[in-house]
Amino acid sequence: MSDNVLRGLPSVDEVLKRPELIDEAGGVSHGHKSEVVRLVIDRFRSEIRSGSIQIESIDLSEAVVEAVIKRLRRLKGNSLKRVINASGVVLHTNLGRAVLCDDAVEALERAASTVNIEYDIDKGGRGERDSHVEELVCLLTGAEAACVVNNNAAAVLIALNTFAEGKAVVVSRGELIEIGGSFRLPEIIEKSGCVLKEVGTTNRTHPSDYACAIDDDTAVLLKAHTSNYSVVGFTSEVKLKELVAIARKAGVAVVEDLGSGSLVELEALAAKSEPVVSSSVGAGADVVTFSGDKLLGGPQAGIIVGKKLFIDRIRKNPLKRALRVDKLTMAALEATLKLYLDMPSLAKRLPAIAFLTRDDVEEIRQLSEEARKFLKDSLGDEFHLELESGYSQVGSGSLPGHELPTVLVTITHENIKPERLFKRFLSNDPPILGRVSRDKFILDLRTVTKASDVVPGGLEQV
Ligand SMILES: *Cc1c(COP(=O)(O)O)cnc(C)c1O
After folding, report:
1. What is the CA(260)–ligand 1 centre distance, in A?
2. Helix residue ranges, H only, 97-174
3. Which atom of ligand 1 is nearest to the CA of 177?
4. What is the pLDDT of residues 106-125, one digit of tens each?
5. How far is CA 32 from the centre of its chain?
6. DSSP structural state of residue 348
7. Within its chain, how far is the Cα of 80 from the centroid?
C-alpha cells in the first residue's frame, strides 16, 4: 500500500517546474533550491512510510509544493527578529537582555567596517584588543587592570583556570549557584580544571570554615553573588573583606563572581541594590567578574577587573584567545561604558537604566492608557481592557525578589482564552511578548517606548 502511495510523490524536477516556486525562490540558487525540494520529498517519504500522515485526505503534489514554499520563506526570512518586550521583565535573557543605547548602535555600524580592533594606530603595529575599554573600565571601577571575554560564565571559567588549574577552589555551600541556561558553579569549577572544596552550610558559613579548608592544594577562595535567590533567616556569610584577609595570610587568591555587577549605586533601586563593582575592588579582591549585558546595560560580555599581575596572567592564558570578544561587542561595550562618564545623563541615555528607574509610574500609566485606547479601537467591544497596578521584574538574576511597581494593561474576552491571545500577539510581525497571569493576558509597557508597538495588526483573526 505505501509503495503505491510513494509513487504518487512528485519528482524533484516536477516540483522545481511549478510556477509558484519561481517567485518564492528568487535569491536562492538552483542547487540550494533543488536540495530544499529533495529534503521536503524525503520527509514526506519517511512520514508516509511511518504512517504519520493521512495520505487519503491530501493531494501529495500540492502538499509538497506548499511545504517547499514554507521552507523557502523560512530560509529567506529573518530568524532573528525584533520582539516587542511587553513581558515586564526588563533584562530578559531570552530576548537578548539589555537594549543597547543609541551610541552603541552607532558604534556597531562603524565597527561593521574595518576597525583597529587589534591595531595600534599610534605605533603602527599590532595592538591589544582589550585596550579599547580597559582605561574606561578601570576608571569606573577603581581597578588596576581589566580584560573582556564572551560572557560572565567565560570570565569565571578563565579566571579559575588561570589561577587554580589542578588545584582547589574553596566556595561556601550557600553560594553554589545555578543561573538559568545551565550555568552551575560546581560544573564551571570542574570544567576550569579545578577541584571544588565546599565549606560551611547552606545558610551559614564562617571565616574559620575558609581558614580551615585552606591547604597546600588550595589556590583560590571564590565568592559568588547569589544572583537569583536570597538566603534569609538565620544566616551568616563571610564578607569579601574578611575573605581577602584570610586569603592574604594563606597566600591564595580571591576571585569574586559578581554576576550583574552594577557600576553605580542606582538610587531608584537603592532599597535592594546589587553590589557595586568598585566596592569589591576596594575590598581587595584580586579579580572580580561581571556581565556586560545585565545591569551594566551593554552587549553580552564578561568583564574581568582586578590587580594588574592577575589580569596579565589571564591575558596570557590560551583560553583568552578562545573566549575573546569580536569587534562588534567591543564597539558596543565601549560606547555603553562611556555613558557612565556622565552620570546625570545616564538614565536618559541608557535604556536598561531608563527602564529600571522608570519609577514614575505615572509615565507608564499614560503610555498604558494610550495603548489601551489603541487596542480598544483595533480589538472591538468584545474585549475587556483594563489598567491594573502590578509589578515588573528586573530579570537575568539581577535584584532577585525586587519588584518594580508598574501599570499593566489586561486583556480578557469571554470566549477566548488568554493563552490564545498570548499566541496571537506573539505571531504578530514584530512579535509582541506579553504574559498570562490570573487568567488574563497582560502587557507591561515598562520596557516599551511607543504605545502603538503593542497593537498587533489584523486582530480580526483572533
Ligand atoms: C548571570 C550570572 C552569571 C553568568 O553570566 P553570563 O554573563 O550570563 O554568562 C554567572 N554568575 C552569576 C553570579 C550571575 O549572576
Report:
1. 7
2. 102-111, 131-141, 152-164
3. 13
4. 999 999 999 999 999 999 99
5. 33
6. H
7. 14
